[in-house]
Design a protein that fits this description.
The chain is an alpha/beta fold and 1210 residues long. Helix content is 35%, strand content 21%. It has an eight-stranded mixed beta sheet, sandwiched between helices. A six-stranded parallel beta sheet has the order 11-18-15-12-14-13, with helices on both faces. A six-stranded antiparallel beta sheet has the order 27-26-23-24-22-41. This is ATP-dependent RNA helicase TDRD9.
Length: 1210
Amino acid sequence: DTSLPQCESSDWTPIPISNHKYPDMPIAKHKEEIVSLIESNSVVIVRGVTGSGKSTQIPQYVLDYCTQRSTYCNIAVTQPRKIGATSIARWISKERSWTLGGFVGYQVSLEKVSTKDTRLTYMTTGVLLQKIVCAKSLTEFTHIFIDEVHERTKEMDFLLLVIRKLLRTNSQFVKVILMSASINCKEFADYFAIPVNNKLNPAYIFEVEGKPYAIEEYYLDDLKHTVHFKLPPQVIEEPVIVKEMYDVAVSLIQSFDELEMKSNREKKTLGFMSERGSVLVFLPGLAEINYMHMCLTSTLNKRLQVYPLHSAVTLEEQSNVFLSPVPGYRKIILSTNIAESSLTVPDVKYVIDFCLTRTLVCDEDTNYQSLRLCWASKTNCNQRKGRAGRVSKGYCYRLVHKDFWTNYIPERPVPEILRCPLGTTILKIKMLDMGEPRALLATALSPPSVGDIERTILQLKELGALTTCVQTEENPHDGELTFLGRVLAHLPVDQHLGKLIVLGHVFGCLEECLIIAAALSLRTFFAVPFRQHIDGYRSKLFFSGNSKSDCIALVNAFKAWQICRQKGELRHPKEELDWGRSNYIHIKRVREVAELFEELKERVSAFNMHVNTQPSAVDQEYVYKQRFILQVVIAGAFYPNYFTFGKCDQGIAVRELAGKDPKTTIMLKNIPPYGFLYHEQLQSLFRQCGQVKSIAYDGPKAFVEFSRNPMEGFKTLPAVYVSLKMSQLKVPLDLNVHYPDELERQVEGSTAARVKYARVNVDYQKQTVEPVEISFGISELSKMIPNRLLSISVTEIVEVGHFWGYRIDEKNMIVLQTLTAEVNHQNLMDLPVSPHPELVCLAPFPCVENKGYYRARILYVSGDFAEVFFVDYGNRSRVPLKKLKDIPSNLRELPFQALEFKMCKMRPSAKSLVCGEQWSYSASQRFTSLVNGYTLLVKVNSLVHGVLHVDVFRYLGSKELVNIRDVLIEECYAEQAEESYESQQSHDLLKALLSDQIKKEEKKPASSREKEKHSIEMLLNKFSVNKFDTLAHKVTLHGPFSPYEVKCYSMTRISRFRCAVIQKESINSVVISDAPEDSFQQMLVAASLSVNATGSAVILEETSLMPPIPGLPALLGMLFAPAIELRLDRSGKYFTGVLCGLGWNKIHGTPLLPENDMELTFDVHFGVDDIAEINILRTAINKLVCECAVCPEQGRMVQLQENVRQKLLR
């Protein structure tokens, strides 16, 4: 079919003929000639300087030509960037007084402002490419203008390839016009040459003569009058902006006043009253724009209006760039290469070009992408130069030396098709059905290497987008397009995100996967305001809901925003912005995600994938099951981006942390002498992290311990993560301290020296600062555990195997009664301070008839009430603030009688972890039924951080003593586990203590301890915070640290010997081993990988930590790998591991994609039945994907989804 564009005369509305007056631009005098050339040639190449009117005028000339002849036309004009397409369409509609979306419109990824009457549509290169791929023809349009062809993006080169192919087959009458200011005309003319009489006729080239005004060029060598300091040499291998270069740019801008005043004197016009020329500064990225902005705003001359211009600016901010500045002010535009083409700001007089750009490249070894800073090409720099001289003489200042420009700056940029992944391009080729990708890409303007094409095809096969065979034969250069491949080709997202959507449909969590795909396709909506990284990190931690997943944090935050809007809480823009500010969420960006979410939802519905609008049958465990399924889907979509963690040496870690609890404690180094004097400063440094319970000083080290809510399970506190994040972000921890010599001079030397590096503990609960004895926990053990068997009463259950209680033996009951009597015989006074968390006080217990008072600790304050924890019994209650009383100091210091218990040698089963936070609802119910209201007998195994690790026994039925752990394991709620290193050490110590094998600890003489205590009190009184003198100086602390922090390592071969670095914005940028005693691997999945500039480190982005289930990494590998090969032991009876990958090349006898192969060792038993179950699940997944293409019945689809879910959860 070589017919004219499809259109019936009745289908289109003719444009009213008008005598539009075109602006006076260099292109105007060539109007008739250009239109004639376009109408008489298939392909025309137009080269004209920036500002000559190519982008705005030529399409209008053609439109008016067709209108005057009553000829139908449908004109497409491509722009490399959205901002260019939208702004030009708006400008034309305004110039011609047309409604935007009427005769002129635009279409960019998320937005379509056009109707069936639109005759001139500006669109991004990608939009036109998608239209052509779907239609397999150009005939939707009469004229296709491709602007800025010099940019040579991957999409641009592929678009040119497809247009060239279709012009020679089914679209011969469509007119194609290529435009640029800096195009290599001959290269493009030869590419689009047409065979005539056995020879090739190149495409017609039209050069637009003339430019608005002359532009003078200057280099660093010419700026000696402006630069009065030495500049470092520029090196081709080190593209960077040093601080001095920013200073050069600022000095230049300041010198423009003098330049203009001199020019005005020559023209005999008034100096400053004349309009000051605008400046356009080209910088490589947002960080550089922000720094330059800061440099300009800190200059003495404030008569500047500075506008940033980059892809993230709002429409309003973009429009401000075109406004005239306030009289007497100079407009400064700080832009990325977005202003290099498409956008022309008419009043720019000066261009300052750092000659740098950021380019996406593909690492040769790993094929991972990396955004690298590099020198811009001469083509790009000349394009930038052309932005000046539109309204008067222009000036271009290149901040490189002339010699460097001549000899080192490259002539042209490397085409993107030669340096970026080709996955999307190859899928589009398969959609076009134009033959083998290798053969078609060989006809590209710059053909990519055969090796790159082959590797991309193998990666698409690994993804499941292409079959491994073509018509039953293995072909490394080609594959048949699968259903998944067709879906991916139609979605405007990365291929792995497309697979996430398809797997989300299979497992019944499509909505969540659409949210993740939309959010990861755009810039993150999690805001990290300047100097508020910690608060932003904490907010993201909150939204992750203990999932340790960036993807799930995105889902939860998006849904929270949606729910607030549905409830009408964000009706006004201010309310919405305030909500965003308090939750550290960019409202503009989350709206963009919502738009893309809706677009993706609509696109996948064409493939029979629909978000389930029917409410699910929700039980107490449904939310947790759904979360686990989503985690599995994430692992499947982002295969093989799998990582695991190194092990920490528990013995070394315990010694480093001085036996402190790693789940509540961080360590600091470089503590100054007499560190305890500055404990209030240190406490305030960590106030933003959490409630500080105590600080233990030990020479040059200090250990900050945060309060743990006694009603929470054993997990590393968020405060510890946030503290370690401070270290990662290099937040300075400075103390104002005294010089030790001066301090000792002011007091009796020996008195002070006694405690210069003493072990001192600051307890904020008991409000004490005291010297600490060297202890191995023996005295603590002997006090708390008179013998290994204890009778107890349970008062509060925290979670399965974790509870509070008190001893009910006769001796302890007397202690409790005596304590209660002493408390209630006191003359109770009101609290001297405002109630706050961690304050120990006296509180009434509401359920006791005599309304007596008991010792309590405030957990939190809410309104006029406080939640308190009774420290002698282990239960809690809500008490009115006015009823809280002060506790006398003698009662505060007595040991608390409540005991915290943890059942030993037990961990949650896989079933419990899948169906709950740690323990499932049914496990919690069962445990409560076993222990609540019963007298229990516990056998003490160890004492770790004040918690008794015990075996719990109860009489069941006819006086049969049953171990509760055995019941939970038998009923599959729990499984056997190793005790931690500290627990084992304590167990051995306890065993020796109770068998009298070791002596009781000998205490330091009381007189020595009292002297230390006296010295500490005297120094605290004399050198309190408010008494710093002029000799005080700053000391910067090192840390915080935790020896339990772990590093991750790749599970694939390609990245195994590279350093793995988790992106600092990720929740998992800090990972602490909660259970270092576990022998099995825990897995981390990254949504995308990139490499650093040197290629030495792999950077993990948008990570998700998989649940700590033994065997899960191997299970996920076997479930989602294209092919697996099981490993056997020497006897051949047992499976020991699995090799996961794309499989084996039978022809060459080598692995197909060895770099992504994973060798996984089984850390649990996998039998033949388990492998059969995995194969059944793989088959069920494939069946459901195939059903998408053929089965329109929604009921059948839901049934298949439930089948897959149940097979996974089994």
